[in-house]
From TrEMBL:
<dbReference type="GO" id="GO:0016787">
    <property type="term" value="F:hydrolase activity"/>
</dbReference>
<dbReference type="InterPro" id="IPR029058">
    <property type="entry name" value="AB_hydrolase_fold"/>
</dbReference>
<dbReference type="InterPro" id="IPR012223">
    <property type="entry name" value="TEII"/>
</dbReference>
<dbReference type="InterPro" id="IPR020802">
    <property type="entry name" value="TesA-like"/>
</dbReference>
<dbReference type="InterPro" id="IPR001031">
    <property type="entry name" value="Thioesterase"/>
</dbReference>
<comment type="similarity">
    <text>Belongs to the thioesterase family.</text>
</comment>
<feature type="domain" description="Thioesterase TesA-like">
    <location>
        <begin position="26"/>
        <end position="244"/>
    </location>
</feature>
<keyword id="KW-0378">Hydrolase</keyword>
<dbReference type="Pfam" id="PF00975">
    <property type="entry name" value="Thioesterase"/>
</dbReference>
<dbReference type="GO" id="GO:0008610">
    <property type="term" value="P:lipid biosynthetic process"/>
</dbReference>
<protein>
    <submittedName>
        <fullName>Thioesterase</fullName>
    </submittedName>
</protein>
Amino acid sequence: MSAVEVDNDRWIRRFHPAPDSATRLVCLPHAGGSASFFFPVSRALSPAVDVLAVQYPGRQDRHTEPTVDSVPELADLIFAALRPWLDRPLALFGHSMGATVGFEVARRLEQRAGIVPLALFASGRRAPSRYRDELVHTKDDDGLVRELTLLSGTDSRLLGDEEMLRMIIPAIRGDYRAIEAYRCEPGATLRAPIVAFTGDADPRTTLDEAQAWREHTESEFDLTVLSGGHFFVANHQSEILAAISARARTVSAS
């Protein structure tokens, strides 16, 4: 595939620059999510880890841009945007759709740049090889709102603001279209370790589906089950950051 040219400033948010850190963490949002979701992560890890949060098209300051409704295409664009940031070891953290996107970005880093990430932290998403017949993206606007309410991923005040909803629903629909159409290449694995997190009451990921991430790495695998639903990360930030920091400390010590 020919090189993809992107405007890096549109794709990457660096809320707390940490130029002296030994490692970087690339954060990938959930469906309908934005880079600002990871502001607390950046604040907590800086200056030990240089956190880069990816901003997908179609939201916040990119709300006038069309969404990218293909996971492989989105991964290609993110990989291109990360090229200037490959001067030090990096890990990837993705929640929900972001975990799948992170897996595909990690594959591109390994296959096209010869860079094996420190780890892929896959949160709140079933393994890439596990499919469900889902058609959320075909629902009307009310149906999409009900889905968001079920997953408790959007502030209830936002759900009640029709003007704001009109702004974010196209992005949400495009993201769901991308993740629901995604099919993993058979036998796809990473050389990087995979660290998975799942909620014990997540309606979108069973324990078996989370365990299946083991099939996608030739290295170490670890699964942590935490209390909560799809957005369990909101109540377990300390445990997740501790796992990320442990990887970063290992690199710093070496």
